[in-house]
Model the fold of this input.
Amino acid sequence: MDLMIGNSPPIRRIKDLINQVVDTDLNVLICGESGVGKELVARTLHERSHRRDHPLVKVNCAALPSELLESELFGYERGAFTGAVQPKPGKFELADKGTILLDEIGDMHISLQAKLLQVLQDSEFARVGGVRNIRVNTWVISATNHNLDEDVRKGRFREDFYYRINIIKIVVPPLRDRKEDIPYLLEHFIRKYRGMSKDGIIDISGKLEKVFAEYHWPGNVRELENYVRRLIVLKDPDLLEEEILVSMGQQMSEDRPVAEVWTPDESLINSVLDNCSQEMQIQFPSLKEIRKKSLARIEKMVIEEALRRTNGNRKQAAQLLQISYKALLYKIKDFGVEMPAGGSVDDSLELKLPKELESFV
Ligand SMILES: Nc1ncnc2c1ncn2[C@@H]1O[C@H](COP(=O)(O)OP(=O)(O)OP(=O)(O)O)[C@@H](O)[C@H]1O
Ligand SMILES: [Mg+2]
Done:
């Protein structure tokens, strides 16, 4: 089983909490964004408990419509519905003496929440279409990436059911709020996936490590794990860095300053291309050369326009362009971008657009 890696204060607190609750049988609710490690916490709880030699049965409550989920959880008797030719035990029965993980519980239909609440209160249930009451001894762990407090407030989740499943709450924070775990996780995943590469050599260069530290990790630990797997196979830190920078840019677009629509006119682009081909008149240009040169010219032109519109504020220009601040500084230097005359070089995030654009903000 995978160990829970990390030494940040929240991860240390979670490990302590796990030790405190493993043998209490109290219902546990694990909350956190996608990919933070909720399932790993559930597996760790099970593996550390006296139930470890019995099954851990996982049910994805988001994957099935309500009626199917009900028969998945409680099983059914022969003839309970068309196609029920054989009786089938449900997940609760299969998890007897073990643990049931109700994953994505925030997506469970409200009518099924009422039924499950009854089952948790009485500790017994009947299969669908059956009359015999079944008693099981199952530890109930639930997980969700919803904010259930808010769902309860908005009437999307039953309050009584919430209190029943949420005796102990474990909140796993997003990776961006515990970046000190990243080096440990990197080391762990490299060790785990090293075998996928022929020579076992992986280079997480200093540059990539820095980008990893700055990145906001919307996909959390799972995203980091996937990056490491790809890096081991593709061995191309530059490509990975570029991808992360693009992804950072996309994130930034959410808080992007609003500016007037701008389409560079054709004559502007023509003059850029003219310039490029004049420079390369000595011999016929290679496609690669023309691509690189023309792209650089066009990028330069767009960057200069963005800087003009943000009055020389490079942070805001980066947001407009949807690239990282770091990538913009690099490009400004690389392309010899001219800063707008009279513009401020104040890089604060406060929006300072030229007067004529203020009405667009
Ligand atoms: N602290 C950690 N140490 C080692 N591996 C981790 C850690 N946290 C997460 N992982 C790994 O990251 C991946 C995603 O974790 P997991 O499936 O537990 O996330 P999740 O919160 O259940 O995600 P989802 O909401 O998408 O179901 C798994 O491969 C898991 O082993
Ligand atoms: Mg999960």
Q: What stands out?
A: The mean pLDDT is 84. Residues 36 and 221 are 5 Å apart (CA to CA). The first helix runs from residue 9 to 21. Residues 38-39, 103, 143 surround magnesium ion (ligand 2) (CB under 6 Å).
